[in-house]
């Protein structure tokens, strides 16, 4: 697992949130590769999320909107299937949005 990879994550919860979701790994590679928890940002593939200063639209590896306003930590074992990796250009846009979201 590396920063910039897109994964399917096992859903949890009751009526809402049970289905599997798609997320972007935003943890530093040293942490994403060994820590029990991984920092991720949800990915909206349905077009329901509004575009803001901290969302990033991408077209590859899938058309979606990255939600850098909703970063969370998940257990590594919930990550199921790798779906691809961001381009260097998209990763740079994610880095800018993360700095904005976290006021860094």
TrEMBL record:
The keyword Zinc does not apply. GO terms for molecular function: DNA binding. The keyword Disulfide bond does not apply. InterPro entries: PemK-like, Plasmid_toxin/cell-grow_inhib. Belongs to the PemK/MazF family. Keywords: Toxin-antitoxin system. It holds the Pfam family PemK_toxin. The lineage of its organism: Bacteria, Bacillati, Actinomycetota, Actinomycetes, Streptosporangiales. This is Type II toxin-antitoxin system PemK/MazF family toxin.
């Amino acid at each position: 697992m590396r920063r910039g990879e897109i994964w399917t994550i096992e859903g949890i919860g009751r009526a809402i949130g049970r289905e599997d979701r798609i997320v972007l790994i935003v943890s530093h590679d040293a942490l994403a590769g060994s820590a029990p928890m991984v920092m991720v940002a949800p990915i909206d593939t349905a077009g329901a999320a509004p575009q803001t200063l901290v969302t990033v639209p991408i077209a590859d590896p899938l058309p979606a909107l990255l939600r850098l306003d909703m970063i969370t930590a998940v257990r590594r074992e919930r990550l199921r299937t790798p779906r691809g990796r961001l381009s260097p250009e998209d990763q740079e846009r994610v880095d800018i949005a993360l700095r904005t979201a976290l006021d860094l």
